[in-house]
Amino acid sequence: MGAIPSRFSSTIIFGLSALCSTAAMAGGTVPSFVQNGTLKVCTAGDFPPMEYYEHPGDTQMVGVEIDVVSALARIWNAKPDFVIAPFTGLLSSLEARRCDLVASGISVTPERLKTYDALPYFTTAVVVLTPASDTATARPEDLSGKVIAIEAGTTYEARAADLNSTLRAGAQPEVTVQTYPSAAAVIQQILVGRAAATFTQDTTAIFRRNQMPDALRIAYTYPDHNTYGLYLRRSGDDLQSLRQAFATLRQSGELAAIAARWGIAETALDAAAGPQ
């Protein structure tokens, strides 16, 4: 992916209205969860550049997913209503009908798909993020015997467990895993020296590194890729309606515009372009 700019105007949520006017009403059937012109979306709200508050005291989030969800809502003649919840509670909030979609840099996994539908739409990779002063870490195994900070409820916990299995097999000391409730709290542990590293996604790692180039370093990028998804409850044709609306955004050029606005590769938003 290309470099991600470190600051963005808070007006980006509305910056693509011209493109949306041509796409509106062309996205097929409105899903059943859009009620009274409102689309409720659960998000953790602290995972830049996907969704975050740009400045302290801001009341409106910005980010890639904020743009994507807002564009989908406009296709359905609805307004997005963002519901903030801890990452560990996002899917349970969806189940409890406190929201209708989950958009929070949440990976599509077989386990989650046992209960919910999801539209994969954003390709990304896991990285090891360390302090910039750590020039010795070149691979995950180099973290042997160290403390790593992980956001609770994420797939990074499984990644850390896999690393410890590898270390045990090689008779090396395991990593100590400490979990925290938010991505921001995890980064703070690295900055203050309580943790030697974290696992996170390339998108947010590039963003944070660009903000603090003297403080953070991407030490390793895993060769496998995973996919962010928009999660929804299983109900009738709602998933197909979401696919149709997403296809409209792609065909109109709006996804390309969002990618350009946030300095990410356009191909990152092609994950939903395959067979539907």
TrEMBL record:
Keyword Signal listed: yes
InterPro entries named in the record: Solute-binding_3/MltF_N
SUPFAM superfamilies (alphabetical): Periplasmic binding protein-like II
A Pfam family the protein falls into: SBP_bac_3
Residues annotated as domain Solute-binding protein family 3/N-terminal: 38-266
SMART domains: PBPb
Protein name: ABC transporter substrate-binding protein
Organism from which the protein derives: Inquilinus limosus
